[in-house]
Design brief:
With 403 residues, the chain is an alpha/beta fold. The chain is built from 16 helices and 13 strands. Helices cover 40% and strands 16% of the residues. Bound molecules: adenosine-5'-triphosphate (ATP) and magnesium ion. The site of magnesium ion has 4 residues, from helix 6.
Length: 403
């Protein structure tokens, strides 16, 4: 971006505006139209100057700053807001992103990195405006109330299928004690969420990016700790911040979960926009899937944001698809067959959607990815997607909303 970025800085009480000014004066290509002390005064200047970028500097948790950001975003949704803080108490980053800010940086920061973050914020906001005002990416929580139903199979293949279709997904392994996403994707756990939890300093997009492992498909992965005893270092507060930050730096976030409604799973459900519930064809698993749906309903989760995947759908145990619909109370959208290539692909560390591209399972995962992507396939592949998948309530076209 060759032209100077015209930015206004609103400085909250408790922050020295001179130090903010001198930190930002060194940022190449940033033209400050004002560094204003006090948010009320800043609001007035904002109306008069109409900068292309708004920066808000605060000392730590500040409800005033959150209200200010929220009002500024509502007033002009296309103008990016970047927040600088000298500290970030638990939960603040999440609130900042929820208020509509584009990025969060902790001062002091290298001037070139600030410039990069500001350019990124502007580019992203412009792109988002074109794509009908997306602020935060959708987050899909892959759930299965019981162990071994195929959650990891589904989440890894979904992430890779989204990346193969040109998306920029991030997959989080939330099975903090026994996560095996790394194994399923053939990724060495050089960095995990445990290292992130143990790291010093506050969380922002640049820092979080350094803890994501890259898969050859283009998907980025936040791996689970390598040992069960490390799980306790990962707090629910950190997870909430991680989820909001990831939603601001990707175009979809997929979360693989452990069995059951553990505190971290509940935090993920609270933060997510969609649930993908994975069940299998036997009466116990179907009962648990039904219970899972009821629990989500009790939690106030919108049922139209839940997609249902039936794994090992062709297993012959005397239960027909009609029985499945009756037991669960709705029809699954996606059916994954049993396929002996699946355990082979897991052992090879190559998801079936890449391992056996033309398999029925591969097609089913691409169909699942299409439920969560904007792209309408030009020529739909023959797949085992339920004919009921298009009924009212089925999840569709998830990427075009502002959360
Ligand atoms: N459709 C399938 N065909 C063949 N094997 C399958 C299929 N689905 C799952 N499996 C096998 O079942 C095992 C369990 O699957 P997966 O790890 O995805 O379940 P999970 O729900 O993540 O389990 P956990 O609750 O322990 O995390 C896998 O190792 C895989 O080999
Ligand atoms: Mg698993």
């Amino acid at each position: 971006m060759a032209d100077a970025i015209k930015g206004l800085v609103a400085v909250d009480t408790g922050v020295d505006s001179h130090s903010v000014q001198s930190a930002l004066a060194q940022v190449p290509g940033l033209e400050l139209v004002g560094v204003i002390s006090g948010l009320e005064e800043s609001w007035r200047t904002l109306q008069e100057t109409r900068p292309e970028l708004l920066m808000v500097a605060c000392a730590g948790y500040s409800d005033r700053a959150l209200y200010f950001i929220d009002s500024a975003v509502k007033q002009e949704p296309e103008r990016p807001v970047v927040v600088f803080a000298t500290g970030s108490p638990n939960g603040f980053i999440r609130r900042v992103f929820e208020s509509g800010a584009e990025d969060f940086l902790t001062l002091p920061e290298d001037p070139d990195r600030i410039r990069f973050a500001l350019e990124k914020a502007i580019a992203r906001r412009l792109g988002a405006a074109v794509a009908s005002g997306i602020a935060l990416a959708p987050m899909i929580c892959v759930l299965g109330p019981k162990g071994g139903t195929g959650k990891t199979l589904v989440s890894t293949n979904l992430a890779v299928a989204l990346a193969a279709a040109g998306g920029k997904p991030v997959l989080v392994d939330l099975d903090l004690q026994f996560g095996d996403v790394g194994l399923a994707l053939g990724i060495r756990p050089d960095k995990t969420i445990y290292d992130l939890a143990r790291s010093a300093g506050t969380l922002d997009t640049e820092k979080l990016d350094a803890y994501l492992m890259k898969h050859s498909s283009g998907a980025r992965i936040l791996l689970a700790p390598t040992r069960p005893d490390q799980a306790s270092a990962v707090t629910v507060d950190l997870l909430r911040d991680v989820f909001s930050t990831l939603r601001a730096m990707s175009d979809s976030v997929i979360v693989d979960t452990p069995p059951g409604f553990t505190p971290e799973v509940i935090a993920a459900i609270d933060s997510c926009t969609d649930v993908c519930l994975v069940g299998m064809v036997d009466s116990l698993s179907l009962k648990n899937t039904k219970l899972g749906l009821e629990t989500l309903e009790l939690m106030g989760f919108d049922p139209t944001r839940i997609s249902l995947v039936l794994n090992r759908a062709d297993t012959r145990v005397g239960i027909t698809r009609e029985d499945v619909d009756l037991i669960i109370g709705r029809a699954p959208e996606i059916f994954i067959p049993s396929d002996r290539q699946i355990p082979i692909s897991i052992n090879d560390g190559v998801p079936i959607v890449l391992h056996e591209e033309r398999s029925e399972a591969g097609r089913a995962f691409r169909a699942l990815a299409r439920l969560y992507s904007d792209e309408t396939p030009t020529a739909p592949e023959p797949t085992n997607v339920s004919p009921n998948g298009s009924k009212k309530g089925a999840p569709k076209r998830r990427f075009a909303w502002r959360s």
